[in-house]
Design brief:
alpha/beta, Cobalt-precorrin-4 Transmethylase, domain 1, Methyltransferase, Cobalt-precorrin-4 Transmethylase, Domain 2, five-stranded mixed sheet, 10 strands, 25% helix, elongated
Amino acid sequence: MKSRSPGLVSLVGAGPGDPELLTVKGLKRLEGAEVVVHDRLVSAQLLDRAKSSARRIDVGKAPGVRRWPQSRINTLLVAEARRGRRVVRLKGGDPFVFGRGGEECEALVAAGIPFEIVPGVTSAIAAPACAGIPVTHRGLASAFAVVAGHTSAPLEQLDWAALVRVGTLVILMGRARLPEIVALLLRHGMSEATPAAVISHASTGLQQAARGSLADIAARARELGSPATVVVGEVVDLSERLAWFTPGEAAGPTAREGVVA
């Protein structure tokens, strides 16, 4: 008997939370999928766009719970594709921004499985934008850096001396460790007066934001939920006049990068 040709795995970025921020190509892949392997906080409205016959598999991680180790997710993608199925790996934000998409691609390459990447809107840019904060702005910031605030490695291993010199610093998954992050920035020369903001559940109906400075942002953001994005830099002050987002106009639960970490 002739063996069935392997299917295709599409790593699709679901965006920051608002289901309308999925790309056109991502939507086409989702609507044509036979299997959807998705993160825990991907919008239910997005999952509803898959056909009713599609198998939906939630491989997301709850905080402190590792129900699906990465090796098991890799094995699942390979197994479903070897059955000749069109598989969509639906990941919060962008697959290659703290989403371990590269590891999944390496597993597919090793198994000889065809794959493609459909980039998504990363919360590193979308969350600040939804709070009226451009990550770059002429005269204020000509560069920005994105770091992960939740990592198995000690935060001290990052080059904070270099990070404090970047125009805008965006920290994903950093709310829980915000006091530690602030202390590291101050220790390496950043001023307490540096504007800072935290945006929770960006682009969704649950969005909330706290704005202040490094001196008080940890206290101001204490009640905000996760996922949250931290922004540090002079561009934060622009939100006073550029704020535009009305949370009540958005719908659906949020997605985030890094939930497969």
